[in-house]
Amino acid sequence: MVRASGETYRSVEEYLAAMEKRRALEESPLACVVMLGGPALLMHEEAGLPWLNRVRCELPQRPLGPGGVEEPVRACYIGANNADADEAQFELVQQALDGIGVGHTGWLRVATPTSAALANLEQADIIVLGDGPHHEAAWREMNDGPDGIAERIRWRYYQGAVLLGVGSGAMLLGQHGYAHKPPSSPAVLPGEATGGDSTLAIGGDDNTTPGGDGAGGSGAAAAAEPRGELSTYKAFEIVPAVIGVDDGLLQEVVEKLGHGTLAFALPERGGFLFNTDATFEACP
Questions:
Q1: 173: which DSSP letter?
Q2: Average per-residue pLDDT for the chain
Q3: Element (H or E) spanning 75, and its range?
Q4: Are 283 and 41 in contact (CB under 8 A)?
Q5: In angstroms, rounded to a whole number, what is the distance separating the alpha carbons of residues 200 and 222?
Q6: What is the pLDDT at residue 11?
Q7: Where are the domains of the chain?
Q8: In whole angstroms, what is the distance from residue 26 CA to residue 20 CA?
Q9: Mean pLDDT of 63-89
Q10: How many Cβ atoms from other residues are within 10 Å of residue 20's Cβ?
Q11: Cys staple from 228: which of 34, 99, 174, 183, with CB 3.0 to 4.6 Å?
């Protein structure tokens, strides 16, 4: 068998091994993916230097602009995980990236993206997905919304942009997102059931009296916050694992998805890198 370079394979086994190596390279990550359990590492320093320099080093070689100067690094922060209201997290990310020479960090609000924010995303070298409780709503907007934000993020990743997720933002880079649904409201029947204008609640084990104010459910039972059914949804599926920051909740997810599910719990002050050779690396 003749190689593309003109050399010959000495056996079928050598040829198959070469094809398997080529297939693995084609399926390997196109850029580094950084997953942090919390914002601590954003401002962390080692030997007086920002830890985020590790992320800066993962960027591909950049073209030279006018005068032979390298074009500035650009970043995009996706802030919808906090219902577009967390300016403090954006400012922290902006400050941290400024410390490693990122020339411009834009904030893209997925619910109301501007044309300028979308243009910045399509030029971004680093894309940051922020932490917050509204990750499923953010994902639905990115994946199903009219602006195709999820596909734009994937395209930048295919072009070599580094993806950086913090908390629930890191979760979205994995195979599945997940959360407990709010408990459903009890069914209500008309007042004939109680012989008056009040209503009768059907369902639940509390001691609420029909037409009352629920005082009978006071105490520990009333103070307990009920949780609904665990819900999972497909996410970016870039990292071949389920990512989380809550060990107990992650265990529930693994049990729901079934045996063979690979999962990583991110420490609050640490994280993992998914490298271009498809290996996981703990950080810092």
A1: T
A2: 79
A3: strand 73-78
A4: yes
A5: 18
A6: 86
A7: 23-61+70-181+228-283, 187-223
A8: 10
A9: 76
A10: 10
A11: 183
Nearest alpha-carbon partner for 138 in 163, 164, 112? 112
Q: 53-87 b/e with 16+ CB inside 10 Å = b? A: ebbbebbeeeeeeeeeeeeebbbbbbbbbbebebe
| pTM for this model (two decimals) | 0.74
Higher-pLDDT residue of 8, 4 = 8
Using the Cα atoms of residue 237, residue 241, residue 243 and residue 248 in order, give the sign of their dihedral: positive
Higher pLDDT, 283 or 222: 283
| Bridge partner list, 177 | 233
Phi, psi of 64, deg, nearest 5: -90, 135
Residues 238 and 230: their CA atoms lie apart, in Å, by 22
Residue tagged 């599910």 (tokens): 261
- Domain 23-61+70-181+228-283 CATH superfamily: Class I glutamine amidotransferase (GATase) domain (3.40.50.880)
- Beta carbons of 67 and 118 less than 8 angstroms apart: no
pLDDT tens digit string along 95-109? 999 999 898 999 998
Closest CA to 272 of 173, 176, 158: 173
* String of DSSP letters for 3-34: -TTS-B-SSHHHHHHHHHHHHHHHHS-SS-EE
pLDDT in tens, 124-135: 999 999 988 888
Q: What is the mean pLDDT of residues 143-168?
A: 92
Q: What is the number of residues in the chain? A: 284
Residue with tokens 């940051």: 128
Residue 251 has pLDDT above 60, yes or no: yes
Contact 118, 155 (CB under 8 A): no
